[in-house]
Amino acid sequence: MNIFEKIIDKQIPAQIIYEDDYALAFHDIDPQAPIHILVIPKKKGIKGLQEVDGETMVHMTTAIQNVAKAMGLDESGYRVITNNGDDAGQEVPHLHFHVLGGTRLGHIHHRDDTHKSL
Ligand code: AMP
């Protein structure tokens, strides 16, 4: 079981800020912005965006919207990132959406190591 599946099963603790029947959201352990929340499906076995079904994505969208409201980001704005696979630097093989906000975000997440001018 990967670390996020253990969080779903409450085998390891997380700072959970939102939960519904389909999704769980908690603070990232290594925040990259004043507010950095991870939103994950409770359904197991979804490694990333290539594996996810449309119905789960509908629930993820709702969860992200609710998390943004709960964290007061819905009006100020926020960024959603999902890393898929090795080239994107995905560390945890369970679909997750980074929700970042609480400040004016730079565009560092659009860059890569080989195209510095982007
Ligand atoms: P990614 O690189 O997209 O797979 O992102 C994985 C994220 O999970 C990183 O931002 C980590 O800081 C975060 N993370 C890893 N373990 C935990 C944990 N136990 N609780 C909260 N966040 C975690």
SSE topology sketch:
Elements: H1 3-8, E1 16-19, E2 23-27, E3 35-41, H2 54-70, E4 78-81, E5 97-101
Antiparallel strand pairs: 1-2, 2-3, 3-5, 4-5
The structure holds adenosine monophosphate (AMP).
Residues 3, 14, 26, 28-30, 38, 83, 89-92 line the site of adenosine monophosphate.
Tell me which ligands are bound: adenosine monophosphate
Q: Quick one: how many beta strands?
A: 5
What number of structural domains do the residues give?
Answer: 1
Please tell me the CATH architecture by its name: 2-Layer Sandwich
Q: List low-pLDDT spans.
A: none
- Mean pLDDT metric: 93
Which keywords apply here?
single chain, 118 residues, alpha+beta, HIT family, subunit A, 5-stranded antiparallel sheet, 2 helices, globular, binds adenosine monophosphate
Account of the 3D structure:
The chain is of the alpha+beta class. It has one domain (3-101): HIT family, subunit A, CATH 3.30.428. Helices cover 19% and strands 21% of the residues. The chain has 2 helices and 5 strands, in the order αβββαββ. Strands 1-2-3-5-4 form a 5-stranded antiparallel β-sheet, with helices on one face. The longest helix has 17 residues, at 54-70. It binds adenosine monophosphate (AMP).
Summed up, what is this model?
The chain is of the alpha+beta class. It has helices spanning 3-8, 54-70; strands spanning 16-19, 23-27, 35-41, 78-81, 97-101. The chain has one domain (3-101): 2-Layer Sandwich (HIT family, subunit A), CATH 3.30.428.
